[in-house]
């Protein structure tokens, strides 16, 4: 720890007003020590981590941290603010700020030391000592553990014992149980009731700070509540799996995480509280009370205890969401779950079909099956092979969409009825609308079946026989007999409407899909536009209107990354070093139709980048429709230009949108720079000697 911090990395009079300014002040100390090679790049990584989850903790603590390729060695800088800085904690601003920097490939030993510090932050004596210390060298010594705080020796011994408990083998856990105080009233002539046993998992995106702070907080709260807890920290330094016997003996489970829990199925059948990692840091006692209440009610995840209602485990969508999300938010995530699994089939199948057209021409769709005729030396045979493989991949689009919508709602039990319903949607010509309906119905049916109380003897066959049988039968009946035909009629009406679009209406539709493609750069709105376009060409003989929409969607999706790449080339001084480096990669990403290439720029400056991108995307989409450009492939960017109808005008449309977005970004960023420069030249700050040492100017919005 001695080489990770020092007096030169301590600022006991941190004068920053914002968390960004505080991070910059501390990062500059790291850079002066040679621990940070690119200050702006490192700060961008810190900001990206902060955007995932606020790093403020109750008790006046801010702990910004990240892993970054711009860090040469694990480093910690500490600042103490007299006014307090808002890091997003519920109880107000932080006066103790710890900036933790870890290299992208930090070794386990250093990360273990950083995790020990994270646990120390839960120690009131430690934080009180840091608030009282007057010498930077002594503060650094406290952080390194070389100068224990008052009362810290006892707490260190206790923490060491707790650490042993948290990784104890079953025998050790039993020994603890034998000596722990009973939580219930002792019964006459009977052994004391054993303590309530909990197993827990903590994890955060970086795996350095919150992971271990949550573990320490849970252990402290469990000690006060008289319960036994064993915590598995899934941090950057790896993790030691809980012993299966310890899990089997547990009465409840707490999962405090902001990234997926590894091997989560180990905890099936237990009363479970599934929440974010900050909840375990800020209110561990409530979580322990909640899991005990669930155990008392007999609630359990799938495969739960006898007599329970079989409360289902958190679904994939729920695991990635926030507590208390509304139905509209969940519906959007269910739909996006299906779309995200469908997109690889779209890309693979569409590009294979496009390759078949490129080699064999547009008549290749009439070629006989390659199982009946295939000549190794004939290009047409290879073209037919690629086309037919792509067609098979496309045939999975609607079943995969429906299956994984149901999966997002009901986890694995939803897959069977979802795929069955999606296949029926194809059979009755209900298309993508039928797939959407089948997925939602399948998930709802499975959830309804799981809520039915069943005898304990039947629970073993529920996931293998009963749920697939009942849900597939119900969904099949509804799709074949009740709603399949009406949805097919609606799908046909929508197709006819698209075929009838021309002139101004077509141009307006192109502008609309262009706006949607650039609104969130790969997010839900972008995916809605993309799915709308691919639905039109995912048939054996797509209409001309459907191919025009596909062309407009792909053209607009290429605009944001290409525009950001051009802007960093034309006006490099408006962008920091990390953005200029991202601009180089954006050339390739944009040319490949990967809209996400513009996300780093949008995340850093959304108010200027996103509106500019939307305007450029709308221009490109409208021009593509006006030029009657068509596209049979759902992906590929400039690499499928030979398959585009009116390719030269299509490239003109893309170039026009890129130029519009680039110009707007440069103008808006230039105006911001002028405003910032005018603040810097303010007469009151003209004399550097009048400034408070270490003070930083807040960054403009």
TrEMBL record:
Q: Where are the transmembrane segments?
A: 339-362, 382-407, 419-449, 461-483, 504-522, 549-574, 586-604, 648-668
Q: Does the keyword RNA-binding apply?
A: no
The UniProt entry's GO CC annotations, sorted and at most eight, read: cytoplasm; plasma membrane
Domain of life of the organism encoding this protein: Bacteria
Q: Which SUPFAM superfamilies match?
A: Phoshotransferase/anion transport protein (SSF55804), PTS system IIB component-like (SSF52794)
Q: Which PROSITE patterns match?
A: PTS_EIIA_TYPE_2 (PS51094), PTS_EIIB_TYPE_2 (PS51099), PTS_EIIC_TYPE_2 (PS51104)
Biased composition, class Low complexity, residue ranges:
166-185, 302-315
Q: Which intervals of the chain are annotated as region Disordered? A: 144-194, 302-324, 677-701
GO biological process, alphabetically ordered: phosphoenolpyruvate-dependent sugar phosphotransferase system
| Keyword Cell inner membrane belongs to the record | no
**How the protein sits in the membrane?**
Multi-pass membrane protein
Q: Which UniProt keywords apply?
A: Cell membrane, Kinase, Membrane, Phosphoprotein, Phosphotransferase system, Sugar transport, Transferase, Transmembrane, Transmembrane helix, Transport
Alphabetical list of Pfam families matching this protein? PTS_EIIA_2, PTS_EIIC, PTS_IIB
Which molecular function terms from Gene Ontology are attached?
carbohydrate:proton symporter activity; kinase activity; protein-N(PI)-phosphohistidine-fructose phosphotransferase system transporter activity; protein-phosphocysteine-sugar phosphotransferase activity
Q: Where is the protein found, in the record's own terms?
A: Cell inner membrane; Cytoplasm
PANTHER family in UniProt: FRUCTOSE-LIKE PERMEASE, FRUCTOSE-LIKE PTS SYSTEM EIIBC COMPONENT-RELATED
Q: Under which name does UniProt file this protein?
A: PTS lactose transporter subunit IIC
What lineage does UniProt assign to this protein's organism? Bacteria, Bacillati, Actinomycetota, Actinomycetes, Kitasatosporales
């Amino acid at each position: 720890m001695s080489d990770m911090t020092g007096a030169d990395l301590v600022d006991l009079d941190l004068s920053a007003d914002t968390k960004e300014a505080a991070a910059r002040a501390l990062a500059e100390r790291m850079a002066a020590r040679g621990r940070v090679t690119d200050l702006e790049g490192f700060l961008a990584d810190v900001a990206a981590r902060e955007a995932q989850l606020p790093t403020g903790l109750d008790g006046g603590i801010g702990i910004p941290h990240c892993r970054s390729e711009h860090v040469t060695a694990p480093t910690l800088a500490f600042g103490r603010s007299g006014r307090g800085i808002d890091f997003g904690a519920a109880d107000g601003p932080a006066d103790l700020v710890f900036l933790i920097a870890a290299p992208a490939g930090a070794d386990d030993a250093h990360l273990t030391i950083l995790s020990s510090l994270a646990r120390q932050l839960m120690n009131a004596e430690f934080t009180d000592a840091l608030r009282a210390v007057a010498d930077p060298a002594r503060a650094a010594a406290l952080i390194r553990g070389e100068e224990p705080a008052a009362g810290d020796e006892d707490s260190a011994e206790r923490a060491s014992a707790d650490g042993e408990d948290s990784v104890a083998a079953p025998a050790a856990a039993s020994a603890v149980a034998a000596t722990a105080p009973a939580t219930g009233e002792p019964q006459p002539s009977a052994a004391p009731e054993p303590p309530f046993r909990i197993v827990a998992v903590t994890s955060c995106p970086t795996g350095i700070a919150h992971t271990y702070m949550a573990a320490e907080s849970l252990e402290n709260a469990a000690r006060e509540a008289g319960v036994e807890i064993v915590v598995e920290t899934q941090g950057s330094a790896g993790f030691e799996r809980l012993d299966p016997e310890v899990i089997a003996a547990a009465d409840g489970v707490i999962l405090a995480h902001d990234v997926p829990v590894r091997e989560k199925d180990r905890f099936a059948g237990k009363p479970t509280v599934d929440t974010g990692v900050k909840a375990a840091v800020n209110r561990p006692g409530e979580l322990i009370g909640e899991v005990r209440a669930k155990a008392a009610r007999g609630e359990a995840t799938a495969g739960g205890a006898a007599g329970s209602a079989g409360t289902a485990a958190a679904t994939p969508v729920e695991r990635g969401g926030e507590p208390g999300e509304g139905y509209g938010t969940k519906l959007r995530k269910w739909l996006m779950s299906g779309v995200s699994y469908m997109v690889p089939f779209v890309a693979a199948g569409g590009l294979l079909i496009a390759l078949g057209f490129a080699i064999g021409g547009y008549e290749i769709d009439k070629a006989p099956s390659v199982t009946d005729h295939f000549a190794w030396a004939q290009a047409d045979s290879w073209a037919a092979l690629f086309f037919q493989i792509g067609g098979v991949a496309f045939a999975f689009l609607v079943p995969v969409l429906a299956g994984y919508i149901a999966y997002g709602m009901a986890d694995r039990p939803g897959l069977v009825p979802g795929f069955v319903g999606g296949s029926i949607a194809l059979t009755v010509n209900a298309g993508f609308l039928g797939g959407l309906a089948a997925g939602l119905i399948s998930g709802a049916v499975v959830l309804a079946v799981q809520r039915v109380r069943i005898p304990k003897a039947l629970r073993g066959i529920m996931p293998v026989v009963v749920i697939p049988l009942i849900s597939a039968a119900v969904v099949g009946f509804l799709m074949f007999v009740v709603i399949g035909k009406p949805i097919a009629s609606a799908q046909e009406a929508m197709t006819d409407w698209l075929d009838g679009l021309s002139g101004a209406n077509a141009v307006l539709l192109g502008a609309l899909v262009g706006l949607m493609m650039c609104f969130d750069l790969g997010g839900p709105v972008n995916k809605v536009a993309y799915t709308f376009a691919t639905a039109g060409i995912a048939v054996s003989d797509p209409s001309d209107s459907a191919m025009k929409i596909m062309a407009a969607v792909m053209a607009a999706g290429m605009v944001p990354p290409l525009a950001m790449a051009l802007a960093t080339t034309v006006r490099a001084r408006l962008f920091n070093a990390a953005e200029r480096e991202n601009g180089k990669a954006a050339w390739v990403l944009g040319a490949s139709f990967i809209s996400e290439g513009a996300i780093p720029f949008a995340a850093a400056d959304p108010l200027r980048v996103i509106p500019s991108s939307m305007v450029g995307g709308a221009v490109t989409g409208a021009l593509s429709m006006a030029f009657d450009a068509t596209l049979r492939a759902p992906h590929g960017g400039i690499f499928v230009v030979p398959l585009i109808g009116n390719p030269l005008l299509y490239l003109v449309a893309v170039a026009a949108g890129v130029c519009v977005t680039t110009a707007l970004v440069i103008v808006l960023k230039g105006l911001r720079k002028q405003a910032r420069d005018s603040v810097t030249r303010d007469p009151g700050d003209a004399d550097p000697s009048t400034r408070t040492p270490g003070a930083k100017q807040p960054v403009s919005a």
